[in-house]
Specification:
heterodimer, A: 184 residues, mainly alpha, 7 helices, B: 746 residues, alpha+beta, six-stranded antiparallel β-sheet, three-stranded antiparallel β-sheet, 35 helices
Chain lengths: 184, 746
């Protein structure tokens, strides 16, 4: 045994648990969050650190915590961030409309009257429809739109060519927009 | 992959790059040939292409603005994250020698200190993105206190600073060894020696507590066993670091649970989990010591850390706040055979012996340290150590197995709703006791024996004066609790006068659900008899002990106590009462409690300072009751009461027009509540009078006074939420007297 046996901070027993995993991926998660949120705009409510922590907590809410690889892991991390950002948009959208208690119904809201937060919610609804039809393209949208990742990063995580990401992202944007219009 | 979509995508992708319309047209004709559906689809997509880009650009910037990290850019975070100190690197006065370990929130290095002396130290760089200045400022605030700690079982924290890239670091005395649980398991340390090590840890924590330092993060990895002349010496490390690195509540990040949740929820006290660190005292450390002791005895923490972490923040909180852990011996008894034999072997014994050793005293000692309610834990780390020492010397311990009555009380505490719902003394308590006294007598006998044992111990043990006075206090408390239970039984039998005498002897002053229920019944009983001074006495005592009842019952108690004070002619004490109400509810976040506090504090004209202190609460009430869902009868009910408070608030401010609006809003409420309406009319009358609408003022006041007079003509009853409590009527009456003096009567 090492002379300096586990000094001061030692790791939690065997296994691949959250306490061990967090330090390994923390920096990456944080960078995704920072990319998502780096801005000088006003109305800020959340720090990248907080977003990472919250996303982390949510991932551990699910129950199944086996990740087959890095891509799988980051896919889930970005999904968790998506849910957080959507909740935030939903809350802000409600507040702006003064319907403190009433469930906001964004269906049938004319696009011209929609706030950016409303639009984020609409995009998310359309994205759910795309997910049903074509999960692969939907993943690209989640990484690019909610994860704020570059084409290169998205390509690496999804294991596809960068060019494919670029093409799918451009197409998906038009598809989603049209889908939103058709819902009205 | 969807073929249709892929085909669409291909055509779309090529076409969008052709800017010349003619070229695009030609390409589409060629690419789609006779597939008109495809062509139509792609053309639609091309036509919305620009709008789509625009919308996404707008939304991406909206997502960005939904958050921000003040003072640091993405790039600097990246740099911070990648940074790792290399041997030879200089941080402040320290030169890195080697990396020692890495945990969830920091990296620890061995480092060489150059000045003022050459020595090896441990240097811990905090990894999580934190506001470095705030961390160091919080550390500096504690630095003096930390410097005063001088104990062989505490590793000193020597210094704090910021690295080149702005991350906070702490410098500590270098401790070489293993964490306590590993040391004990690897060396098969038996239970007795584990307890002896644990006692030393208690003494170290006690020393820190006496210097005013709370550790806040006691866990095995913060207690290192080092060998000194071949003897194991436990050292507590990281003192002051938890406090300096915790996210202050003012930075309302979404994760109120903060870093500790990522780290070590298994060792966190219920109050820490519940309040997010706002109300932590030394007893939080006692809880964590209890968890550590549990783990030393059984090899497990009371709650499984993985389950806790996976259950999510809310469930984690609920577990820590509400779920009773299994007793250590029961926990061992349900282990799988292999687990149990390993656990026993690590304690140098066999399974049956280990369980027998822990069952009884050690169970109760651990469970007393782990009490959810901190007032029931050991008062001090020393007290915990002394009880373990008693166990080791085969003396009776202070911790006791919970009696049936005690368990019943716990049940009641978990079901406070029952208490709140019943006006008289808890029906649950009566039902639990079977309305007969046999259980009570049995309990009294048990208590007598317990008290005798404690007295015996006082004679036998040569303890410090402090410990003795503690025991005497515990004994007094036990006797007082006993009387409270007797009073509760008497009330259940309708013997309120006897109960009243009993409670006079007990004079309870510690927060207690039982004592509060008894005092509440008695103050109401006196009020309904029109015996106001006695009602005021009981209700004032009630305010000292009702903290465990939550904001709803708590704020109702203040309404009752306020009117009792005025009715008993103790206007001089009313100011003090108002201060108490403020200190209790100033930081509460419930708008109903806020509204009630405003109302009762304004029952008598206040001074400027009081108005200023009440302003935030009035603001909170205004924000919640200005708009409400009229279909929700609860919300309407709350808003109607809130309107009375806000009418009175505006009236006291001299904003008569606003006051009138609020009073009318209350009266417009569809569901009738006579005392509320009477109060609203009285405030309305005063507002109208101030606005020189004398006739209307007289009319409103007359209606209110008639309603009040009718009520007081009959015997006053306790009442309920729907039709108004007795104190709601008394409130309206007191206010109507003020109004009559102003407006006159018809």
């Amino acid at each position: 045994m090492n002379e300096i046996t586990q000094i001061l901070l030692s790791r939690q027993g065997g296994g691949f648990d959250s306490e061990e995993l967090l330090p390994l991926v923390y920096n990456d998660l944080r960078r995704i969050a920072a990319a998502r949120m780096a801005s000088e705009a006003e109305g800020q409510t959340l720090q990248p650190t907080a977003l990472v922590h919250e996303a982390w907590m949510r991932m551990f809410n699910g129950g199944d915590h086996r990740w087959t690889n890095r891509g799988h892991f980051f896919g889930e991390a970005v999904e968790a961030m998506r849910r957080i950002l959507i909740e935030r948009a939903r809350r802000k959208s409600r507040l702006k409309r003064g319907h403190g208690w009433v469930r906001l119904d964004i269906d049938g809201l004319p696009l011209a009257e929609a706030t950016p937060d409303d639009k984020v919610l609409m995009i998310n609804d359309a994205l759910e429809r795309l997910e049903a039809e074509d999960p692969q393209r939907a993943k690209v949208v989640v990484m690019k739109f909610f994860g704020g990742l570059t084409n290169q990063e998205t390509a690496k995580i999804l294991g596809v060519a960068e060019r494919t990401v670029e093409r799918q992202w451009a197409f998906a944007k038009a598809w989603l927009f049209q889908n939103i219009r058709e819902q009205m | 992959m969807d073929d249709t979509l892929s085909r669409e995508e291909e055509v779309f992708d090529a076409a969008r790059k052709l800017e010349n319309p003619a070229e695009r047209e030609a390409f589409l004709s060629q690419a789609c040939r006779d597939d008109s559906a495809l062509r139509e689809r792609v053309e639609t997509l091309l036509s919305v292409h620009n709008n789509a880009e625009e919308m996404f650009t707008e939304c991406i910037s909206a997502l960005r603005s939904s958050a921000d990290d003040p003072g640091s850019s993405a790039a600097s975070h990246l740099a911070q994250g990648l940074e790792e100190e290399q041997p030879g690197a200089q941080i402040g006065h320290y030169k890195i020698v080697q990396k020692l370990g890495e945990g969830g929130c920091g990296v620890v290095y061995m480092a060489q200190q150059e000045k003022p002396m050459r020595r090896l130290v441990a240097l811990k760089v905090i990894k999580l993105g934190m506001d470095t200045r705030a961390v160091i400022a919080r550390f500096d605030a504690e630095r003096q206190a930390l410097a005063m700690m001088d104990h062989p079982n505490i590793a000193k924290v020597l210094d704090a600073g910021a690295t080149r890239t702005g991350r906070p670091y702490f410098v500590m005395e270098l401790v070489r060894g293993a964490r306590i649980t590993d040391y004990c398991d690897q060396n098969q340390v038996d239970t007795r020696h584990r307890l002896e090590l644990f006692i030393q840890i208690c003494h170290a924590i006690q020393h820190a507590h006496q210097k005013g330092i709370i550790h806040r993060d006691i866990k095995p990895s913060n207690i290192i066993v080092t060998l000194h002349d071949g003897l194991p010496v436990p050292k507590v490390i990281d003192f002051g670091i938890a406090k300096a690195t915790e996210v202050p509540l003012t930075d309302k990040t979404l994760l109120t649970a903060q870093n500790q949740f990522i780290g070590t929820p298994a060792y966190m006290s219920p109050e820490q989990a519940g309040t997010g660190g706002i109300d932590i005292d030394t007893r939080g450390d006692i809880y964590s010591l209890g968890v550590l002791l549990y783990e030393l005895l059984t090899g497990r923490t009371p709650f499984d850390p993985k389950t806790l972490l996976q259950s999510g923040v809310d469930e984690m909180r609920r577990t820590l706040l509400e779920v009773e852990p299994q007793r250590p011996s029961s926990r061992l008894a349900v282990l799988a055979r292999d687990d149990l034999s390993t656990t026993a072997a690590r304690r140098h014994t066999e399974p049956p012996r280990l369980i027998a050793l822990i069952r009884g005293d050690l169970d109760w000692i651990v469970m007393k340290a782990l009490e959810k309610e901190r007032a029931r834990r050991y008062e001090t780390a020393n007290g915990l150590a002394v009880d373990i020492q008693r166990h080791l010397s085969n003396e009776p311990v202070l911790a006791r197995p919970p009696s049936r009555l005690y368990r019943l009380q716990k049940l009641i505490r978990r079901n406070k709703v029952i208490f709140i719902a019943t006006a008289a003394v808890s029906a649950a308590l009566i039902a639990g006791l079977g309305a007969s006294t046999w259980l009570f007598l049995k309990e009294r006998e048990a208590r007598r024996r317990a008290v005798a044992a404690e007295l015996q111990q006082i004679r036998l043990t040569q303890e410090a004066e402090l410990a003795r006075s503690n025991e005497a206090r515990l004994r007094r408390q036990a006797e007082a609790r006993q009387k409270v239970i007797q009073a509760a039984v008497l009330i259940s039998q309708g013997k309120l006068d006897q109960a009243d005498r009993m409670i006079t002897d007990a004079s309870p002053s510690e927060p207690s659900v039982e004592a509060a229920a008894v005092l509440r019944s008695l103050s109401e009983w006196r009020a309904l008899q029109d015996k106001w001074p006695m009602a005021a006495d009981r209700s004032s005592s009630l305010l000292r002990v009702n903290q465990l009842d939550g904001w709803d019952q708590g704020s109702l108690d203040f309404l009752g106590a306020g009117v009792c004070l005025i009715e008993s002619g103790r206007a001089d004490q009313f100011d003090q009462f108002r201060q108490l109400a403020l200190s209790r509810f100033a930081s509460n976040t419930n708008s109903v409690a806020a509204e009630r506090t405003v109302k009762i504090c304004l029952l008598k004209p206040p001074d400027q300072t009081m108005m200023k202190s009440l302003a935030p609460l009035a603001g909170m009430a205004e924000a919640s009751f200005t708009t409400f869902d009229a279909r929700d009868s609860q919300a309407t009910f709350r808003a109607a009461w809130g309107s009375v408070s806000l009418a009175l608030w505006e009236y006291r401010l001299g904003h008569y027009a606003k006051s009138i609006v609020w009073a009318k809003r209350c009266l417009a409420c569809p569901e009738s509540n006579p005392p509320r309406e009477a109060a609203a009319r009285v405030v309305l009358a005063m507002g109208l009078h101030a606005g020189s609408q004398t006739d209307e003022a007289l009319k409103q006041l007359h209606t209110a006074r008639q309603s009040i007079a009718e009520k007081f003509n009959e015997t006053l009853e306790s009442g309920g939420a729907d039709q108004g409590f007795w104190f709601d009527w008394v409130f309206a009456q007191i206010l109507s007297e003020e109004a009559t003096a102003l407006v006159g009567s018809q």
